[in-house]
UniProtKB/TrEMBL annotation:
GO cellular component: cytosol
Enzyme category, top tier: ligase
UniProt-recorded name of the protein: Glutamine amidotransferase
Gene3D superfamilies: 3.40.50.880
Positions of the Glutamine amidotransferase domain: 44-192
Any one GO MF annotation of this record: transferase activity
Keywords (A to Z) from UniProt: Glutamine amidotransferase, Ligase, Transferase
PROSITE patterns: GATASE_TYPE_1 (PS51273)
UniProt-listed Enzyme Commission number(s): 6.3.5.2
Length: 244
C-alpha cells in the first residue's frame, strides 16, 4: 500500500507525537504506512502525490484568521506552503482530510469566512449529519447524531460556495464539509479519544483555550463524556483511499 502523509504543525513534541499515534491507531495504519512532516520545523518538501494514498492535516496552534501582522514567519510560511499544496489537491481532487485546522486552511483556500464567531471550548458536543452527510461514504454507518470532541478559537462562518456541508452543531454550523468528491475537513477532532483529549488539555492549558485554573474541571468533564463514533471516519478514509 502506498503510504498516507500526515502534515503536522504542533511545536510541542508530546502533542505532536500523540497526534501521530492517534492517526495511526484510528486510521488502522502501521508506522510505515503513515509518513509525517512537521511543518513547524521544516519546509514542505516537494511532493509527488502519486507516491501517496492520501493526505491528513492535523490540528494546529495556528489560526488562519489571525491578523497578518500578528503571524510569525513560520506561520506565514506554513500557510503559503499549504495553500500551494491545496491548489494541486483540489485541482486533482486528491484524497485529503484536515482535522480542525483543516477547516480554517481548506475553508480559507476556498474563499470561506474564517473567524472567531463560532469558537467552541474544549469538550464533547453533539454533531448532526446533514442529508449530504448521511449519504457520504466516509460517514456511512454512523448515526445521524453523535458526540465528538472540539476545541477551537476560529471556525468557518460562511460555507464556501464550492463546498458541501456534511455536519453541523448547535454552536458551530460548519462541523464538516467536502470539496469536490475527495477533499474533506472537519472542525471536530476524529483523531481524539478521551486520553488524547486530556493530554491536549494539559499541554495547552496556557494557550488561551480556557482559563488555566479550570484545567482540572475540563479534564473531569472530558472523563465523563462518551465519544465513540468519530474515530471511525479516519478508518473509513483509509479504507476508501488506500491504494497499491
Amino acid at each position: 500500500m502506498k503510504p498516507f502523509l500526515l502534515l503536522a504543525t504542533r511545536v510541542d513534541d508530546y502533542a505532536a507525537d500523540a497526534e501521530f499515534q492517534s492517526f495511526l491507531a484510528f486510521g488502522g495504519l502501521a508506522e510505515g504506512q503513515l509518513r509525517r512532516v512537521r511543518l513547524e520545523a521544516e519546509s514542505l518538501p516537494e511532493l509527488d502525490l502519486a507516491d501517496y494514498s492520501g493526505i491528513f492535516l492535523g490540528g494546529s496552534p495556528f489560526n488562519s484568521s489571525d491578523p497578518e501582522e500578528a503571524k510569525s514567519a513560520v506561520q506565514v510560511r506554513v500557510e503559503s506552503e499549504l495553500g500551494g499544496l491545496l491548489d494541486t489537491v483540489v485541482a486533482e481532487d486528491f484524497p485529503f482530510f484536515g482535522a480542525c485546522y483543516g477547516v480554517g486552511t481548506l475553508g480559507r483556500h476556498q474563499g470561506a469566512v474564517i473567524d472567531g464567531t463560532y469558537a467552541e471550548p474544549i469538550g464533547a458536543i453533539d454533531i448532526t449529519l446533514t442529508d449530504d452527510g448521511l449519504a457520504d461514504p466516509l460517514l456511512a454507518g454512523l448515526p445521524s447524531s453523535f458526540s465528538a470532541y472540539v476545541g477551537h478559537k476560529e471556525a468557518c462562518a460562511t460555507l464556501p460556495s464550492s463546498a458541501v456541508l456534511l455536519a453541523s452543531s448547535a454552536t458551530c454550523p460548519v462541523q464538516m464539509f467536502r470539496v469536490r468528491e475527495n477533499v474533506y475537513a472537519t472542525q471536530f477532532h476524529p483523531e481524539l479519544d478521551v486520553d488524547a483529549l486530556v493530554g491536549r488539555i494539559r499541554t495547552y492549558r496556557h494557550a488561551g483555550y480556557f482559563p488555566p485554573e479550570e484545567a482540572d474541571d475540563y479534564i473531569a468533564r472530558a472523563r465523563a463524556s462518551a465519544v465513540e463514533y468519530p474515530a471511525a471516519i479516519l478508518g473509513a478514509f483509509v479504507r476508501r483511499y488506500a491504494r497499491d
